[in-house]
């Protein structure tokens, strides 16, 4: 993203009809958050390869051949059952069968076709050093999320891991966020922010009454995040660092 100077872009939130200001420079709103909820796919890790290859494996079971994995990018982030029903026009039963086939490959192979975004571990370290409470709030089953964090040696940065259940429970992002808030007895929502790359993160945060920062380095785009009502949008891990640690002089120059 090019440096446009100390400016902001004004958008109209289509859900609330309120103006949303998106910074295009390194000086962000000086909101101090004490509790940072992070999405996993497209926010902490780049998991597209493992997810899309496992989706392709599942679709092949139904006689659907996909050659270009980019066609399956839209499956990264949203609840898988909903995506199969929306994009493939599956019935609920077919979607459940698709999830089972997906997990056949994902559980042992796809889960590790993944990479931590450059700069993310350093950000997690600095958030911890700043005594921020860092928690995971992902639509992915918590069982897999914990294995991924362990695999990349990131678990110790997170106070709590919240995700969906393998049985389909907590399948919506607002349910996951409430689960995280309730299990950590977090009541001052003004100090909580959700960070994610898709509209589901933004909508889930708004439903639970917390702020949300959208990231563009994941799988969503500016239009999606803007229309969903993101309070702030950042283009990189470095810009996210500036937003979450606004009082740190090394990032506020």
List the helices and strands and how they pair.
Blueprint: E1 8-12, E2 19-23, E3 35-38, E4 45-46, H1 48-61, H2 80-87, H3 92-106, E5 115-116, H4 120-129, E6 133-141, H5 142-151, E7 160-164, H6 173-183, E8 192-196, H7 199-208, E9 211-215, H8 222-228, E10 232-234, H9 237-244
Parallel strand pairs: 3-6, 3-8, 6-7, 8-9, 9-10
Antiparallel strand pairs: 1-2, 4-5
- What general form does the structure show? globular
End-to-end C-alpha gap: 18 Å
Provide a count of the helices.
Answer: 9
Assess the beta-strand content as a share of residues.
15-25%
Radius of gyration: 18 Å
Strand order of the largest sheet: 7-6-3-8-9-10
Number of strands: 10
- The arrangement of helices and strands along the chain is EEEEHHHEHEHEHEHEHEH
Q: Enumerate the spans where pLDDT stays under 50 for 5 or more consecutive residues.
A: 1-29
Mean pLDDT: 89
Task: Report the helical percentage.
Answer: 25-40%
Largest sheet: 6 strands, parallel
Content-based structural category: alpha/beta
């Amino acid at each position: 993203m090019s440096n446009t100077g100390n400016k902001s872009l004004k958008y109209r939130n289509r859900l609330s009809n309120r103006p949303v200001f998106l910074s295009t420079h390194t000086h962000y709103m000086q909101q101090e958050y004490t509790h940072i909820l992070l999405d996993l796919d497209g926010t902490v890790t780049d998991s597209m390869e493992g997810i899309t290859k496992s989706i392709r494996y599942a679709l092949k079971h139904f006689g659907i051949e996909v050659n270009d994995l980019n066609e399956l990018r839209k499956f990264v982030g949203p609840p898988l059952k909903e995506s199969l029903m929306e994009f493939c026009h599956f019935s609920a039963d077919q979607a459940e069968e698709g999830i089972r086939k997906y997990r056949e490959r994902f559980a042992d192979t796809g889960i590790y076709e993944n990479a931590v975004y450059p700069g993310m571990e350093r950000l997690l370290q600095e958030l911890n050093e700043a005594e921020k409470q860092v928690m995971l709030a992902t639509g992915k089953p918590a069982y897999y999320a914990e294995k991924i964090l362990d695999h990349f040696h990131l678990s110790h940065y997170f106070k709590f891991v919240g995700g969906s259940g393998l049985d389909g429970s907590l399948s919506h992002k607002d349910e996951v966020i409430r689960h995280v808030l309730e299990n950590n007895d977090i009541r001052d929502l003004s100090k909580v922010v959700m960070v994610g790359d898709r509209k589901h993160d933004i909508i889930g945060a708004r439903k639970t009454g917390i702020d949300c920062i959208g990231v563009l380095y994941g799988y969503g785009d500016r239009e999606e995040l803007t229309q969903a009502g993101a309070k702030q949008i950042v283009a990189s891990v470095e810009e996210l660092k500036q937003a979450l640690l606004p009082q740190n002089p090394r990032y506020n120059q």
